[in-house]
DNA sequence: TCAGAAAAGAGAGCGCCGCTCTTGCTTTGG
DNA sequence: CCAAAGCAAGAGCGGCGCTCTCTTTTCTGA
């Protein structure tokens, strides 16, 4: 498997990894548009044509980087989630959102690669799907847990969305109510709108304290998916004792 | 001014326009990454070096296209808004959102240019700011009208966001309450998250009936900014105050 | 009016790019 | 042990952004 039979096979794995590492370094430093096979090869002391033995084209190398980026983001989100696994849905939801934002700010070019405009004429191959789903699955899981604890509520859907919402539900989370799934998918997209706007400069003369703004917006997203936030067990937590001052009006539903 | 003094000046205007037109054509056909000055020049029957008399670099040409794209989007949104100018805030809000989405679907590469990842190492010059603000101003205007009719309400802000929200309010819409402005900015970003996810394929095996889904999501965004949708012409709508099945918890506030 | 300034086009060229093809060398497996 | 397969290297093709030089055309002001 991984320790394949010959020295040749091992070398191939090592060289492939070295290429990806160097490419990732250059991607982080200069962005996808300036990522050139020739520069990677140069840095690795090999001739550019040799590199084609490992990645048949620049797009294939980019695809590998895309998958890695999805995985890196997914791992970051998952470990952030694990750290608050025992907390309530609200904390967990926000932890995942905040982790995604932080990852994006730390890896802007990788983020742009996966959630910005797709490169040239390029359409992502199906290989990327599992890696791309990790954050989404995390969010679904949080809502699912909340739902099993009766902590999710959403108003009924308009009739024209019912069919589609049921379809999405069957596909994504058959155990959740369609109203919740529809709201979840929207929140998922909106989360990346918030991150993207900050990252790509649309907030430039608009939002200054972006961390605070984002936490609040993520909190509102949680409301949007119908997560209910009961006053945190302590009846007398009016001032400051509250997780982080990010409360807002009550969300209640049917 | 526009008809400047000589034939030379007139020619310059015409050639500049021809270059932009051809560039826009190629941008729409192949995307920003494949837009090359040489190809544009070739198509126009001029030699590539001559083109540099009009645009000192590829990035400058792209900047011109960016401004045009913002203007095109802004115009589309504004005319869509004008068509429902007499309707309620909800219809107007949705009309603007739907128009933005439609424009994006019709001009994917232009959309990617302005709201996707910024090209190469490129940061948008300040020239683009006015053009970029048009849709945002439209949304602010809708909410402002609703507010003057007492049709906007939001729960109070968490304390840690108050300062920033007041700053944003002073900058963007001093006549609106800070809670509304904060929600508006978030909704603005979220709108483009929804559009971008559809456009860039993130909805691919997730959402099928995207038009319906989007309308619903845009409706929810309107709720998010605190737009209240009174039951049409019914005066006493204290309790079940929802237009269709699309209400979410009560929004109430100052 | 007419010479000099300014603007514009044309061409050659530099260094980069993705990618291909051919040529030899090394490892591998029957 | 030897043929097949894997691999590095080099040369080369066409395309790119951009610069520089040279010539022609147009504009301007004394």
TrEMBL record, chains A, B:
**Keyword flag DNA-binding:** yes
The record's PROSITE patterns line, in alphabetical order, gives: HTH_TETR_2 (PS50977)
InterPro entries per the UniProt record, alphabetical:
Homeodomain-like_sf, HTH-type_TetR-like_transc_reg, HTH_TetR, MT1864/Rv1816-like_C, Tet_transcr_reg_TetR-rel_C_sf
Keywords associated with the record: DNA-binding, Transcription, Transcription regulation
Entry keyword Methyltransferase: no
The lineage's top-level taxon is Bacteria
HTH tetR-type domain boundaries: 13-73
Disordered as annotated region, ranges: 232-254
Q: Name one GO molecular function term.
A: transcription cis-regulatory region binding
Enumerate the PANTHER family for this protein: HTH-TYPE TRANSCRIPTIONAL REGULATOR RUTR, HTH-TYPE TRANSCRIPTIONAL REGULATOR RV1816
- The molecule here is called TetR family transcriptional regulator
Question: Lineage in the entry?
Answer: Bacteria, Bacillati, Actinomycetota, Actinomycetes, Kitasatosporales
């Amino acid at each position: 498997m991984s320790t394949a039979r010959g020295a040749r096979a091992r070398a191939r794995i090592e060289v492939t990894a070295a290429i990806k590492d160097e490419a990732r370094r250059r991607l982080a430093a200069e962005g996808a548009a300036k990522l050139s096979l020739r520069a990677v090869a140069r840095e690795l002391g090999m001739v550019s044509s040799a590199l084609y033995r490992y990645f048949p084209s620049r797009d294939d190398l980019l695809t590998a980087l895309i998958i890695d980026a999805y995985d890196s983001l997914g791992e970051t989100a998952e470990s952030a989630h694990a750290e608050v696994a025992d907390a309530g849905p609200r904390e967990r939801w926000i932890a995942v959102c905040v982790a995604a934002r932080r990852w994006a700010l730390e890896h802007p070019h990788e983020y742009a690669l996966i959630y910005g405009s797709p490169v040239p004429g390029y359409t992502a191959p199906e290989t990327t799907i599992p890696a791309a789903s990790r954050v989404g699955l995390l969010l679904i899981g949080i809502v699912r847990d909340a739902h099993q604890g009766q902590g999710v509520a959403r108003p009924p859907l308009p009739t024209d969305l019912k069919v589609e919402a049921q379809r999405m539900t069957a596909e994504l989370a058959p155990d959740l109510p369609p109203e919740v799934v529809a709201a979840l998918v929207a929140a998922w997209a909106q989360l990346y709108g918030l991150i993207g706007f900050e990252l790509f400069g649309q907030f430039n003369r608009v939002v200054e304290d972006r961390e605070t703004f984002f936490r609040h917006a993520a909190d509102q997203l949680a409301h949007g998916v119908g997560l209910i936030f009961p006053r945190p067990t302590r009846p007398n937590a009016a001032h400051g004792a509250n997780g982080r001052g990010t409360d807002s009006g009550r969300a209640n539903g049917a």
